[in-house]
Amino acid sequence: MVEYLEAGWTRPELEALLRAMSARPRDILRQKGWPAAELGLLGSAVSDGEILDAMVAHPILVERPIVVTPEGTKLTRQSEAVLELLEAHSAS
Q1: Per-residue pLDDT reduced to its tens digit, 36-79
Q2: pLDDT band at residue 80 under the 50/70/90 scheme
Q3: 89 vs 2, 22, 38, 81, CA distance in Å?
Q4: What distance in Å separates the CA atoms of residue 53 and residue 36, rounded to the nearest whole number?
Q5: Cβ distance 71 to 89 under 8 Å?
Q6: How confident is the model at residue 19, as a pLDDT?
Q7: Of 5, 4, 6, which Cα lies nearest the Cα of 17?
Q8: Cis link prior to 35 (omega < 30° from 0)?
Q9: For residues 66 and 14, what is the distance between their CA atoms, to the nearest angstrom?
């Protein structure tokens, strides 16, 4: 478990998670609450690089939890998604 609010993220860590999920930064951007809107990150013209830079500067911008198992990496906002990953891992 990564205590991301304390430890923060590095850009390479986020890029590796995104590759593992076949996702883009906007896919894991926490859009509700501070500071995504205040930082102007919700517009369609905002680049992936800008979002990644903001996530490194403000770790709270990364939606959570992101679960990493040998069976895959997934943003598991609903508990059912976590169970799917864990069940797939225990079945193998």
Answers
A1: 999 999 999 999 999 999 999 999 999 888 888 888 888 877 66
A2: low
A3: 20, 19, 39, 13
A4: 12
A5: yes
A6: 96
A7: 4
A8: yes
A9: 11
Q: What radius of gyration, in Å, describes the C-alpha atoms of the chain?
A: 14
pLDDT tens digits, one per residue of 17-26: 999 999 999 9
Residue linked to tokens 């102007």: 40
Contacts of 21 (CB under 8 A, 6+ apart): 27, 28, 66, 72, 73, 74, 75
Q: Is the dihedral of CA 36, 40, 45, 50 positive or negative?
A: negative
User: Could you give all domains of the chain from N- to C-terminal order, each with its CATH number?
Assistant: 4-91 (3.40.30.10)
